[in-house]
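Quick one: structure tokens for this chain, please?
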Amino acid sequence: MRAACLGLDLEVRVLGQAREQPAFWRGVRMRPANRHDPFAEAACVVLPAFVEHRPRLLLQARSRGLPVICSADCGLPPDASGVHLVRAGALPELVDALRACC
């Protein structure tokens, strides 16, 4: 996600403490998501996770009409409307999906 946002010069909204180390998002235009409405000002919701067993936020995003980019590991069906599946860790696929969404 970090590499894709850097390459496309996208601003990312981070929900909670989504980082691996203190300087994880260095160089990326990033700010915390609105904790009362995490979808405020979002163009799409992205979760290219290697493992995700509770895709509630993705389902909420779809119910609000936002496009979702996620890995198949998130449990959403590949033919779901508004869902674009990418392989976890596949940067070119993620970049292509983000280009199409943003």
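The chain has a mean pLDDT of 89.
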